[in-house]
Amino acid sequence: VQDFVISATTPNDQTLASFFRPLTAHLVVAAGTLANETRGVVDILIVTKRIHDPRIAKVIKKVESTAAVPVRYLVLEVSEYLARREGFDRVLRDIFDFKHRVIIGRA
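Given the sequence above, the corresponding structure tokens read:
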């Protein structure tokens, strides 16, 4: 039943992109339950210059209401993302090794 609810309520890429456009994010990746992956640690990865932007919380609430499930998310600054990517960070590896969808930007 849970799989049906998740698959029926998972927003598509265009819907997610429209939610995140006002943030001017460099990278947005849908993973975990938003990519129909049960092993995911994070559902949304957001890479932006302004990590303390209050609009991020509003967008996450909108995604949660659309998806009908709680969303686990990670917000990183661009420099921190690049450093973690070069250092083979465990969380980023889990996101990109399992099923994921790049919504905005290039991974």
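Helices lie at 2-9, 13-20, 55-67, 78-86, 90-97. Try to locate this feature in the token string yourself.
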